[in-house]
Design goal:
- The complex is a heterodimer.
- Chain A is mainly alpha-helical.
- Chain A is 76% helix and 0% strand.
- Chain A is built from three helices and no strands.
- In chain A, helix 1 packs antiparallel against helix 2.
- Chain A is flat.
- In chain A, 25% of the residues are buried.
- Helices cover 86% and strands 0% of the residues of chain B.
- Chain B is built from six helices and no strands.
- Classes of the chains: A mainly alpha, B mainly alpha.
- Chains A and B meet through helix 1, helix 2 and helix 3 of A and helix 1, helix 3 and helix 6 of B.
Chain lengths: 110, 197
């Protein structure tokens, strides 16, 4: 048995259904924004960006919990800690690149 | 404790240590994707000829790709559950279904890429398209390697049955496959959905 939680059928089915709903919600939101903005009360572009990002993050958690079966048990911590560390590095890498490149761009133009 | 139980206990400890090593590889692969996402985020407006993701995003097409990959993640899970029961033929059947679903995903992506390149919007047309092809292409390449690996595992199941080594390799492939589906969540959300706004 691996240190990942045991895979079970209910976990996979839950993961599949939730991922499906989150995916359809994200695609539906963009489709509504492009073709029927009145359906979503002409939601602002900023609000749409945030909603898509939140839906993606929820789906990340769903798939990590249901498909990868990552958990915070004593055994699971061995895998959880490098995972959290990686998330930190990813956040620094992506936000840092955007921040620096935005500033460089701004200073070139002004 | 019988010798057999002792062997099992020892095997489990070795397995969990080896799986941890593979987990670290997956985490380092995350960083490759993070760099490519950062590059795409910085360059997606550098379109040069005004041709961006917005012009070619076809929502139903991307949704179909997404559903193929999500379904394949689920069917791989079914293969793992059959593996717990040592039901070799069921494992092979589920792996073949997973392989076909993954193959449909890769075929759709290759089709999209050939169309774009054919219309003169290849990776050489602008910085935005370069970063698009590198990010989506790297993911597609990973999926293709996963498919090749799956074929190798199907052959191993025929030859070695559900031995400890085969079980461990299928656990690795399971982590890899679930990881690729997770990366795809961000590809469709950031590249296609946010690109289409």
């Amino acid at each position: 048995m691996s240190t990942h939680g045991l895979k079970t059928l209910p976990a996979y089915v839950t993961g599949l259904i939730l991922s499906l709903l989150l995916t359809l919600a994200a695609f539906g939101l963009i489709a509504a924004h492009l073709y029927k903005p009145e359906y979503i009360q002409n939601m602002s572009v900023a609000a749409i960006y945030i909603t898509i990002a939140v839906l993606a993050l929820i789906q990340l958690i769903v798939q990590v919990a249901c498909f990868l079966r990552l958990n915070a048990s004593a055994e699971g911590k061995w895998e959880l800690m490098p995972f959290i560390f990686t998330l930190l590095i990813v956040a620094i890498l992506v936000s840092g690149s955007l921040w620096i490149m935005y500033n460089l761009n701004y200073n070139m133009m002004h | 404790m019988s010798t057999h139980e002792h062997h099992d206990h020892h095997q489990q400890e070795t397995d969990s240590r080896l799986v941890f090593g593979f987990w670290l590889y997956i985490m380092s692969d995350c960083l490759i994707f993070a760099s490519l996402f950062a590059a795409f985020a910085v360059l997606h407006n550098a379109t040069f000829d005004g041709f961006s993701v917005k012009q070619f995003t076809d929502l139903p097409y991307v949704l179909t790709e997404t559903l193929f990959l999500l379904a394949s993640s689920f069917t791989y899970g079914m293969a793992i559950l059959s593996l717990y029961k040592n039901n070799r033929n069921k494992v092979i059947t589920w792996l073949i279904i997973t392989f076909l679903l993954g193959l449909c995903f890769v075929a759709l992506e290759v089709n999209e890429f050939t169309h774009l390149i054919g219309e003169g919007h290849g990776p050489d047309s602008s910085a935005a398209m370069s970063s698009f092809f590198t990010l989506v292409g790297t993911h597609g390449f990973h999926v293709s390697m996963g498919l090749f690996w799956m074929l190798v595992m199907i052959i191993q199941l025929f030859v070695f049955n559900t031995s400890d080594a085969v079980k461990r390799r299928l656990t690795y492939l399971g982590l890899f496959w679930a990881f690729l589906d997770i990366v795809w969540i961000f590809v469709f959300s950031i590249v296609y959905l946010m690109g289409a706004i």
